[in-house]
Structure formats: C-alpha cells, structure tokens
Amino acid sequence: MKETFDNEVIKAVNCHINLGESVLDAYMLPDGEKRIGVENTGIALGYSERFFLQRTQKESKALKALRGMGFSGEQIWVKIIHQGENKIGPSLSKTVSLRDFTKLVTYEATAKGNSKAIVLLAAFAETGVERILEDAFAGRSVDFLLEKIVHYTKWTQQDLEEVLAYNREEVRALHGWGRAPSLDDR
Fold first, then answer.
1. pLDDT at 182
2. Distance (Å, rounded) from C-alpha 140 to C-alpha 142?
3. pLDDT < 50 regions, the chain
4. Range of the domain at 22
5. What is the pLDDT of residue 142?
6. What pTM was estimated for this model as a whole?
7. Does the residue 61 lie in any domain?
8. Which of 140, 113, 92 is nearest to 45 (CA)?
9. Total count of domains within the chain
C-alpha cells in the first residue's frame, strides 16, 4: 500500500464526526479533498485503533478482496495546526481516502456481517439520498451521483458473488440451516 512520508506531509483542517460510541476524524486538504483518519476507523467498526494498519499490511484474504473492489489503501500523513489554549503545536495523522473508507465499511458490512458497518452504511446512504434530493429539487446538478454509480458498477459479478456466498455461509452458521434438527435445538 502506498504511503506518503514526512517530507510529503500536507496541512489539513480537522473535524470530528460523532458516531455515538465512537468518533471519526475527518480532514480536508488544501485542494478540497476530504479524508478519514485511520486510527478511529477501526474503533468505528468495533475493532482497535490498529485495525486499519493490520487489515492493510498483511496479505490477508480480506486485503485481496478489498483490492478486488478497487481499494488502493493509499495513506497520506496530514499535519493539523491546533489553535487555542488547550491545543499546543502541530500534530500528525495518517489518513485514507473517502472512497477507500467506503469500500472498507462496505466489505465489513457485506463480507463480515459487521453490524456497526451495516449501521454506518445505512446512515450514510440515507444522508446521501437526502442530499441528492435536496440538490435536485433546488435545481443543482446531481451528476456526482452518476460518477459514483459508474465507479461502483465496476465491481465484477465475481466480487459480488463472493460476498453473497460468504454471507450465505455466515447465515447458515448462525442459524443452522441445512442440517438435521437435533435435541440441542430446543
């Protein structure tokens, strides 16, 4: 996975998105690109701060599946200049693109059945649909939606079938479908 280093650190504006049990750190670069801090990504999905690093550093089945979905894993260091009495000096944070974050959350929801990821996707989808409708009724362009559709339709049928097969296996394991009933089922 590609990662930028100290001589390539970019200054960024920082904000926090409250998710109830966790917080996502969001960053906006000078060119307007928005990114997510990798440390809290794992926490938002019910894992540790090291989750993203562990998921993207070893050649796991999950990383191969994510790459098949177009996950780049590119990480960029950003420098946040804190102002005010409580914050002293600059700090650094490693970030990932919104597209990679979305693919990671989608993978966790569909392939892993991660309930926190499913809730995040549902909340993001509802918020996105609301924005699209507001823009459309206000006469603003919603062409950004077509760009997203084109991107996500590049997922192959094989990618989708693998996710569905995995989900079916998980459901069978959870509910015991496809096996003879036993006395333990009471």
1. 52
2. 6
3. 4, 6, 84-85, 186
4. 6-176
5. 83
6. 0.70
7. yes
8. 113
9. 1
Whether the Cβ atoms of residue 140 and residue 84 lie closer than 8 Å to each other: no
In-domain check, residue 185: no
The answer to whether residue 27 sits within a structural domain is yes
Question: What is the side-by-side strand order in the sheet with 34-37?
Answer: 10-11, 75-81, 90-97, 34-37, 23-28, 13-18
78-104: pLDDT as tens digits: 998 655 445 555 589 999 999 999 999
HSE toward the beta carbon, residue 94, CA cutoff 13 A: 15
Residue matched to tokens 């801090």: 37
* Residue 43 in tokens: 């926490």
Please list the residues that pair with 83 across neighbouring strands: none
How would you write the chain as a 3-class SS string?
CCECCHHHCEECEEEEEECCCCEEEEEECCCCCEEEEHHHHHHHCCCCCCHHHHHHHCCCHHHHHHHHCCCCCCEEEEEEECCCCCCCCEEEEEEEEHHHHHHHHHHHHHCCCCHHHHHHHHHHHHHHHHHHHHHHHCCCCCHHHHHHHHHHCCCCHHHHHHHHHHHHHHHHHHHCCCCCCCHHHC
- Give residue 134's region: left, alpha or beta (phi > 0; psi -120 to 50): alpha
Residue 63 within any structural domain of the chain? yes
Distance CA 148, CA 36 (A): 18
